[in-house]
Design brief:
This protein is α/β, with parallel strands linked by helices. The protein has 2 domains: 268 residues, 3-Layer(aba) Sandwich (Aldehyde Dehydrogenase, Chain A, domain 1), CATH 3.40.605; 192 residues, Aldehyde Dehydrogenase, Chain A, domain 2. Helices cover 40% and strands 23% of the residues. The protein has a 7-stranded mixed β-sheet, with helices on both faces. A 6-stranded mixed β-sheet has the order 9-8-7-10-11-23, with helices on both faces. A 3-stranded antiparallel β-sheet has the order 5-6-24, with no helix packed on it. α9 links the parallel β12 and β13. The termini are far apart. Bound molecules: adenosine-5'-diphosphate.
C-alpha cells in the first residue's frame, strides 16, 4: 500500500492473493488492508491537502503531464500487468492504457482553465465574484473491469482540481493500481496527496471512507447495489458523490441501417472485455426487415471468436472475472432458452482443455428474446448478445427506455431525422449513433436513473471535484 509517500504492509501484516482469471494461477500477494489503514491514508491525505490545494495549476499540470509520459513509456508493462490480473486480450489492454493516459493529459491541460467569474450586481455598490476551489479529500473506489482507466479518470481530475485522494482498487485487480501509484510517485506527486489502500474485504474500508469527516467527496465505479449503499452512507455525512454504476444498453438497428455493418459494430462493442463493461449492449433491437440478415451476420462473426488467455495470439474473448460471473451469465442464458430463445452461437461455459482452469463462457447469440426472460431486464456483464425483433419506431423507443438503467445506448440508421428523434428520445447518458465508441477523455461519461449520478471526463468531470464559492463585495 502507498500511504503518506511510503510503500508499506498492512498494519496487521496480512496479505491476499492475486489470481490470473485465465488459469487460476497465483500471480503474487498484496497487503490486505483494514479500517485502520484506511484511516491512516485519510489522515495523510487530509494533512497533505492544504499544501497541495495551494499549488498553482501549472505545477499540478506538470506533474500530471509527467505521469502521462511515464504511462506511455511503460505502456507494454502496464498492459501485461492488466492482462495478467484482469484477463483482457493484450491488444485491448494496450488500448486501455492509452485511454487511461489520455485522462491525465486532458486534465493536466484543463487544470489551467479552472476559472472564476465576476457577475454583475443590481446594486451599484456591490460586486460578485465566483471562485472555484477543490472540494477537499476525495475517496475513490474503482472496479476490476477497467482497472487502469477508472483510476486515472478519478485521480486525474481530483489532482488537477487540487484535491488529495485515498483510492481503494477492486480486490481482483490491485496490481494495476500499484503500478499506477508508482507512476504518481515518480511523477512527483507530493507525499500524502495520493494514497492507496488494497484490501480483500472492501466493506470496512468503504465504511471508513464514507464515515470519516475529512472525506468530502466519494467517487465510485461499480455495481448499482454497492453504489446505492455507499451513496446512502455518504448522505449521512452529506458528502458529495459521483456514481458510475450498471447499465443495460439497447442497440437499435433500424430498417434503413446496413445490417452487416451494424452486426460488425454490435459484435465489436458487445464482446469487448468479454461483455464486462457497463456500456456493453445488452439488448439488440432489430427491425423486422433486417432481423434475419443481422442475426446471420452477427452469428458468423461470433462463431469465429476465439476464447483463451489474453496473452495468446488471436484471442478475442478473455475469461470472466470469477466463477460467480459464469453462474450469473449461464443462469440468464438457461432461463432464456427454457422460455423459448434459441442459441445461434455459444450458450454454455467453455471447459475444454486449458480453458477448464479459467472462467470462460462461449460468446453467445440468443435469438427470439422476449420480455418474460430475465436477460431482457437484467444486466448480464458477460459475452451474450440477446436479439429482439421490433416493428415500429415508437415501440422500440418505449422498449429501449423500459429499464431502470440509463447509461449507454446505440442507434444504427442512415436517416438523419430518425437518428435525431431517437437521440432525443432515449433516456441514456451516452448515445452512439452509428458509433460504437462514444467515449473520450474530452467527452462527458455517465448515466441517468440507476446508472448513477455525475459525469467523468470532460469539463463536467473536473466540476465534480470543485466547490463554487461566491463573494459579495460591498464597495
Ligand atoms: P462488481 O459487481 O462489478 O464487482 P462491485 O460494486 O462489487 O462491482 O465492486 C466495485 C468496487 O466496489 C470494488 O472496488 C469493490 O471492492 C468495491 N466494493 C464492493 N463492496 C463494497 C462495500 N461494501 N464497500 C465499499 N466498497 C465495496
Amino acid at each position: 500500500m502507498y500511504i503518506d509517500g511510503e510503500w508499506q504492509s498492512a498494519s496487521g501484516g496480512k496479505t491476499f492473493e492475486v489470481l490470473n482469471p485465465a488459469d487460476g494461477a497465483v500471480i503474487t500477494t498484496v497487503p490486505d488492508g483494514a479500517a485502520v489503514d484506511a484511516r491512516r491514508a485519510i489522515e495523510a491525505a487530509d494533512g497533505a491537502f492544504g499544501a497541495w490545494s495551494r499549488t498553482t495549476a501549472y505545477f499540478r499540470a506538470d506533474i500530471l503531464q509527467k505521469a502521462h509520459r511515464l504511462m506511455l513509456e511503460r505502456k507494454e508493462d502496464l498492459a501485461h500487468t492488466l492482462t495478467g490480473e484482469q484477463g483482457k486480450p493484450i491488444r485491448s489492454a494496450r488500448i486501455e492504457v492509452q485511454y487511461a493516459a489520455d485522462f491525465l493529459q486532458w486534465f493536466a491541460e484543463e487544470a489551467k482553465r479552472i476559472n472564476g467569474e465576476i457577475l454583475p450586481s443590481a446594486r451599484n455598490d456591490q460586486r460578485f465574484m465566483v471562485l472555484r476551489q477543490p472540494v477537499g479529500v476525495v475517496a475513490a473506489i474503482t472496479p476490476w473491469n477497467y482497472p487502469i482507466s477508472m483510476i486515472t479518470r478519478k485521480v486525474g481530475p481530483a489532482l488537477a482540481a487540487g484535491c488529495t485522494v485515498v483510492l481503494k482498487p477492486a480486490e481482483a485487480t490491485p496490481l494495476c493500481a500499484i503500478e499506477m501509484f508508482k507512476i504518481f510517485e515518480e511523477a512527483g506527486v507530493p507525499k500524502g496527496a495520493v494514497n492507496l489502500v488494497t484490501a480483500s474485504d472492501p466493506k470496512p474500508i468503504g465504511a471508513e471512507l464514507t464515515s470519516h469527516p475529512a472525506i468530502r467527496k466519494l467517487t465510485f465505479t461499480g455495481s448499482t447495489a454497492v453504489g446505492k449503499m455507499l451513496a446512502a452512507e455518504a448522505a449521512g455525512r452529506m458528502k458529495r458523490v459521483s456514481m458510475e454504476l450498471g447499465g443495460h444498453a439497447p442497440f437499435i438497428v433500424c430498417e434503413d441501417a446496413d445490417p452487416v455493418h451494424a452486426a460488425k459494430g454490435g459484435s465489436l462493442v458487445k464482446f469487448l472485455n468479454t461483455g464486462q463493461a457497463c456500456i456493453s449492449p445488452n439488448r439488440f433491437y432489430v427491425h423486422r426487415s433486417n432481423y434475419d440478415a443481422f442475426l446471420e451476420a452477427l452469428t458468423a462473426r461470433v462463431s469465429k471468436m476465439k476464447a483463451g488467455s489474453g496473452f495468446e495470439d488471436g484471442v478475442g474473448i478473455g475469461p470472466l472475472v470469477n466463477e460467480a460471473a459464469i453462474e450469473k451469465v449461464d443462469g440468464q442464458v438457461r432461463d432464456a432458452l427454457t422460455k423459448g430463445a434459441k442459441a445461434f452461437a455459444g450458450g454454455a461455459p467453455l471447459t475444454d482443455g486449458a480453458l477448464s482452469k479459467g472462467h470462460f463462457y462461449a460468446p453467445t447469440v440468443l435469438a427470439g428474446v422476449t420480455p418474460d426472460m430475465r436477460i431482457y431486464h437484467e444486466e448480464t456483464f458477460g459475452p451474450v448478445a440477446p436479439v429482439i425483433r421490433y416493428d415500429d419506431e415508437d415501440d422500440v423507443l418505449a422498449m429501449a427506455n423500459d429499464t431502470e438503467y440509463g447509461l449507454a445506448a446505440y442507434i444504427y440508421t442512415q436517416n438523419l431525422s430518425r437518428a435525431m428523434r431517437l437521440f432525443e428520445g432515449l433516456k441514456f447518458g451516452i448515445i452512439g449513433i452509428n458509433d460504437i465508441n462514444p467515449t473520450s477523455a474530452a467527452a462527458p461519461f455517465g448515466g441517468m436513473k440507476n446508472s448513477g449520478v455525475g459525469r467523468e471526463g470532460a469539463r463536467e468531470g473536473l466540476d465534480e471535484y470543485l466547490e463554487t464559492k461566491l463573494g459579495g463585495f460591498a464597495i
